[in-house]
Amino acid sequence: MFKKSMSILSILLTITLIVSGCGGKSGNGKDQAGEKRELVVVNWKDYGSDNPELMKSFEEKCNCKIVHEYMASEEELLTRLRTGGVGKIDVVLPNSSILPVAIEEGLLEKIDVDKIENYQYVNPKFKNLPENSKDGDVYAIPWVWGSTSIAYNPELVTEEIDSIQVFWDEKYKGQIAIRDDFNDAVMIAAIALNDDPNNPSDLNKIKEKLLEQKPLNRTYWKTGDEFSKLFANKQIAIGLAWSGQSASMKKEGVPLKYVIPKEGAIGWVDNWAIVKDAPHKDLALEFINYMIGKEFQTNWVNSGGPAPVNTQVVDALDPDFVQEMGLDEESISKLFFISYHPEEVKKAWNELWHEVKAN
Hints:
By secondary structure, this protein is α/β, with parallel strands linked by helices. The protein folds into two domains: 31-143 and 269-319, D-Maltodextrin-Binding Protein, domain 2, CATH 3.40.190; 146-268 and 326-358, 3-Layer(aba) Sandwich (D-Maltodextrin-Binding Protein, domain 2). 40% of the residues lie in helices and 18% in strands. The chain is built from 15 helices and 13 strands. It has helices at residues 2-20, 52-62, 74-85, 99-104, 124-127, 182-192, 203-213, 224-232, 243-251, 281-291, 294-302, 311-316, 319-324, 329-333, 343-358; strands at residues 37-43, 64-70, 91-92, 133-134, 137-138, 141-152, 176-179, 217-221, 238-242, 257-259, 265-274, 307-308, 335-337. Strands 1, 2, 3, 6, 7, 8, 9, 10, 11, 12 and 13 form an eleven-stranded mixed sheet that branches. β4 (133-134) and β5 (137-138) form a beta hairpin. α6 packs across α7. The N and C termini lie far apart (85 Å).
């Protein structure tokens, strides 16, 4: 009798789980008050998760609505988590620059990767980033990755570029634009000096190298939109650029070649994380699973998004496109992925960059 009762109970529990789906509190995807659940996501603006067409199937499947809050920087995201985000925000997009601090301060939830079906398809190189875990527990799931490297206009630059030293080439004076970002600036100077870009040995040499480059630079661009306009209008011929944006510009017909130079380039990974005491933890897991899944990642990369972490998607891409945009394993091996830096290091780099620009 006991065994029979337990069997019936097991069946009922199974039915309940199947009906609820998508981490729901009820079978119709609504919360206990009868309202459609709202998943609060903090992300960059126009960065995949706020694309209605790409997110339509997820919202329909889970009978939910994604509510976006936008961030202007990783530091701003960290501040938001510290000042009221816990218990109110569901999912955020941190990178390695703030992940260790957010984890240490207890701002993020541990993630059970066994509950994320598509995690098995994430490229192992990105799974093993040290900033994403602590004491064997995972706190962040890789989503997309890319590089910050050289983009040039083949109609204005007739030679094949293969070296980061092009940013210091006198013949392109006034036709170059690098990004106004202390991290990127220090890292590319270190790469050019054959130094460790995540831990340069001599900041004075870095500063000298950047001061040497400054007279050749037309401008320091701040936003992707600013860069694309400068490049498309042929105000610059060479720039430090993001791989994803470069791919999108090529798809729009802009004459552009994107190169990972022989010395290497900057690599970055964006990760999804669940905020501590998130109102909809189970739905947040479903969201992350969808974002790293084949459907979303295929659609986004084909519309000009950054490189997917899902190996199924990469394997299905045009091999020429993969090599051209630096998505192949050889190119990945030449990337120096941004790592976490303590506050004193970031302050020193930031001050150095301000001194370069003010000089």
